[in-house]
Design goal:
CATH topology: Pyruvate Kinase, Chain: A, domain 1
CATH architecture: 3-Layer(aba) Sandwich
Shape: elongated
Strand content: 5-15%
Number of strands: 7
Distance between the termini: 30 Å
Order of helices and strands: HEHEHHHHHEHEHEEEHH
Radius of gyration: 28 Å
Largest sheet: 5 strands, mixed
Number of helices: 11
Length: 374
């Protein structure tokens, strides 16, 4: 028979955990409201910068204009197939845990994107929907210089690459901040050239720990800002990315984060920050009838506007991630509190049954002893 003292200790332990989860739920709720308000306040700026970008790019059609951040689709593919630089990924996750599957969903999306091997059945450069806000996964194989040759697993793709079956776009050998042990472990699973051709900027301790343990080269990490992002950090990330992109060290920048949908829903999203592909704006700007006269000229405006546009997108992603993290933690702690309450109820019922069984057993012993004396 179970020990009553043990059951009481178990009930007390569950109640203490319930108090902690309830407190974390209340804290997350209070912070979530502020994060959601910040996100909603920023949305009009993101929408306006997107509209301005489309209008300015529509004015650039037919003009001879060269900019390191702006390329056509053909120029982009040719450059990336030559292996002229590295790929940079900005991954935004959380600093703390107890937020359900928030961070793991981002890591899975990042892993799928970084390790993408061209196995999409619809891989084609001709099938483009013209949406500049989302990176076209079906074009990712061509942009990386990988020729799709049928359905293959990532492991098979890396084996073919190691034997010269597929030309990788990342031919540079680069230094990393990870330890030699981590790099040795990583190269058991990655093509050596491929892992050296990937760089990351991480936001959140969880992201830094996850990718560092897997041997990736993290050039910059930010901790302690996942719940309360600030624009200055987005501007700092933008300056670093633009500097490395302009110097030719990197040729592609992808932003991966959790997009906030509602208080109970968020989903991983990925956005290509650089380069800006003119083909993506061609269809979007075709429906714009109004033409504006810009002061100063449109070229000067575009030079000044591009850094602000990129910083706005990074900051918007950080706000989306913050709201998503707090909503995920709020839901996870609420469920944990409810489960603790349910467990306490079952333990109390079990405690009463054991106690009643003990009392019944004692009565039976007394009655049996009395009958034996007669």
């Amino acid at each position: 028979m179970a020990n009553l003292q043990h059951i009481r200790r178990r009930i007390k332990s569950v109640k203490n955990i319930q108090k902690i989860t309830n407190a974390m739920d209340m804290i997350a709720r209070s912070r979530f409201n502020a994060a959601r308000e910040a996100l909603l306040s920023n949305l009009p700026y993101v929408a306006k910068t997107k509209e301005i970008m489309r209008r300015v790019m529509s004015q650039m059609r037919g003009q001879e204009y060269e900019h390191p951040f702006i390329k056509t689709r053909d120029e982009l593919i040719a450059e990336q197939q030559e292996g002229a630089g590295k790929f940079l990924f900005i991954v935004i996750a959380s600093d703390k845990g107890l937020a359900g599957s928030f961070s793991s969903n981002v890591f899975k999306a990042a892993h799928d994107t970084i390790e993408y091997d061209g196995t999409s059945e619809n891989s084609s450069l001709d099938d483009d929907d013209g949406d500049d806000e989302n990176f076209h996964r079906k074009n990712f194989d061509a942009l990386k210089g990988i020729k799709p040759t049928g359905k293959r697993t990532p492991k098979q793709q890396r084996q073919m690459s190691a034997t010269g079956g597929i030309a990788r776009a990342t031919a540079h050998q680069g230094g990393g901040t990870q330890s030699g042990a981590n790099l040795a472990v990583a190269r058991e699973y990655h093509d050596a050239d491929y892992i050296d051709g990937i760089e990351l900027i991480t936001v959140g301790r969880k992201a830094t720990t996850y990718f560092r343990q897997r041997g990736y080269n993290i050039i910059k990490s930010y901790h302690g800002i996942s719940e309360r992002p600030q624009y200055k950090y987005a501007k700092e990330i933008t300056d670093l990315v633009m500097e490395r992109f302009e110097s030719g060290e990197i040729i592609d920048v992808t932003l991966i984060y959790n997009r906030f949908k509602s208080a109970i829903s968020c989903a991983p999203d990925e956005v290509t920050l650089l380069p800006i592909v003119t083909d993506d704006y061609a269809k979007a700007s075709a429906n714009l009838k109004e033409e504006y006269i810009y002061e100063p000229d449109v070229v000067t405006l575009l030079d000044k506007f591009l850094p602000r546009r990129i910083a706005t997108r990074v900051y918007g992603a950080m706000l989306h991630s913050a709201a998503s993290e707090l909503s995920s933690r709020m839901n996870a702690m609420s469920n944990a509190t409810d489960n603790a309450q349910e467990l306490v109820g079952r333990l109390n019922l079990f405690y009463n049954k054991v106690r009643q069984a003990g009392i019944t057993n004692e009565i039976n012993e007394i009655v049996g002893g009395a009958n034996a004396l007669e």
